[in-house]
Each structure stands twice: as C-alpha cells, then as structure tokens.
Amino acid sequence: MSPEPAFLLHRRPYRETSALVDLLTLDHGRVRAVAHGGQRPGSKSRQRLQPFTPLFVTWQGSRDLKRLTLMESRGQTALLAGEGLLCGLYANEIATRLLPLELPAPDVFAFYTALLEALPAPAERALALRRYEWALLEALEATPQFTTPEGSVLDPQLRYRFDAPNRAFMPAERGLDGRTLRYIEQGDWQHEGLANALKAVMRAALAPHLGTTVLRSRELMLDLARRRHRP
After folding, report:
1. From edge to edge, which strands make up the β-sheet containing 176-177?
2. Rounded CA gap, 11 and 13, in Å?
3. Residue 36's pLDDT is what?
4. pLDDT tens-digit series, residues 154-191
5. Which residues contact 39 (CB under 8 A, 6 or more apart)?
6. Which phi and psi (to 5°) does residue 61 adopt?
7. How far apart are CA 66 and CA 183, in angstroms?
8. Is the pLDDT of residue 45 over 90?
9. Helix 106-118 crosses helix 82-98 at what angle (to 10 degrees)?
10. Coarse DSSP helix, strand, coil percentages of the chain, rounded to the nearest 5 percent
11. Among residues 105, 157, 178, 209, which one has the fewest Cβ atoms lying within 10 Å of its Cβ?
C-alpha cells in the first residue's frame, strides 16, 4: 500500500517493547495496529508516535489488528498547552471511542487537521471543535434532525430539548429556542451568541454514542476550570 496520512489517537503498551496504537487515517478512518518497538526507550517508533504529529504510515494484515510497516513524520507536531491541549486530547478520545474500525471518514480527518491548526488560538478553538464533532456525527449517520419527532418544523418562539432516540427536538419548558436551533441547522455557526447552544447540541447528540464511561479529557477540563476559579 502507498503511505497514508495519519495521526496518532491513542497509544498503550503491548507485550514487552511494542505499542498498541489507534490511528486516524485519511482513507481508512480509525486503524488499530501494533507498532513494534513503540515502547522501547530511544526507538524511532516511540519518538514519532506522539499525539498531534502528522504521520505517513503503512500497515499489513487483513484482520482488525494490523502491523505497522512504515511510520514517518510528515510535518511539525502541533504545539498545544493548557486548554488547547485538553481540547486536543478530547478530540482524540472521542474519535477513539466513536469511530468503528476502518470506517472511511475523510471529513473527520479534514476537520481534525483543521482543528489542530486552530487549537493554539483561543478565539478559533470552540468553532473548530464543534465542526469536528459534527463531522464525527455525520460519519456515524447520527446528526440531529432539526424537526420535532413527528417531522414538524421548529417554532422560533418555542423551546426544545434534544430527543436522542429520534435525533429530533421535543418542546420543553427549558431548553434551546427554535430560532437558535434554526441558525445551527443553517450552518450559520459564527452568529453571535451561538457558542453555548452549539456546545449543548453537540454534547446531547454525542452522549448516546459515547456511553456512560466518563471522558478522561472532560475530567481534566473540569479540574482545570476548578483550579482557575480557586481563590
């Protein structure tokens, strides 16, 4: 196979000196593979297998677990710190948890690449993360339908909550107003005041697919927020 662009999503020890890795690849989506020498101190494999580093990879194997045969750098590692780093870890964690193995997801790869470019800039971070989350939902065919469960158009004057089983919105006393949801449906995500609503919609839509296990990256974000507000 030709070398394929990829990013490391997750790495853990495997046997004595190898690593078990999850990769986000351009054409094959999430690929799980063994990187021989990936845990050996000083090895080139270990040096290259770092989060947020653009890679070229090849692999062999016909089953779910592949064997990496080539791993080369194709660019500079994104330099992330603080909240930007935690957002990057979150992006890796939800892709690892959500994407089925070898489900082609070129849009996820594209928006992940754009996200890494945006994360160092606080003003660009949130919107890039929302577009990445939306790409993941599209890959899973799980994007929200901006109607009621019966298929009715949302009333701008009413409030709604997300109904996960139907991927739709039900009228509710508390929730997001129909006008805001219409802006989100139209893709007008830079409209003033949409940031919190966008975050709420994405979180509600992703929740059924993430399961009940708490995201480690989200715990770290909450811990960072608590430390910032500590007297």
Report:
1. 168-171, 159-163, 176-177
2. 7
3. 87
4. 999 999 999 999 999 999 999 999 999 999 999 889 88
5. 13, 14, 16, 17, 18, 19, 46
6. 120, 145
7. 43
8. no
9. 170
10. 40, 25, 35
11. 157
pLDDT at position 229, please? 67
- CA dihedral (224, 47, 108, 84) in degrees, to 10, reads 20
- DSSP H or E segment with residue 4: strand 4-14
What is the distance between the alpha carbons of residues 160 and 186, in angstroms, rounded to a whole number?
A: 17
Supply 124's token pair: 């660009």
**51 close to 87: Cβ distance less than 8 angstroms:** no
pLDDT at 44 over 70: yes
**Which whole number is the average pLDDT over 64-80?**
92
Residues 6+ apart with CB under 8 A from 189: 127, 130, 131, 183, 198
Over residues 62-81, mean pLDDT? 91
Q: What is the pTM of this model?
A: 0.93
Question: Which pairs from 10-19 meet CB under 8 Å and 24+ separation?
Answer: 10/92, 10/93, 10/96, 11/35, 11/38, 11/49, 13/39, 14/38, 14/39, 17/43, 19/45, 19/46, 19/49
End-to-end CA distance of the chain: 56
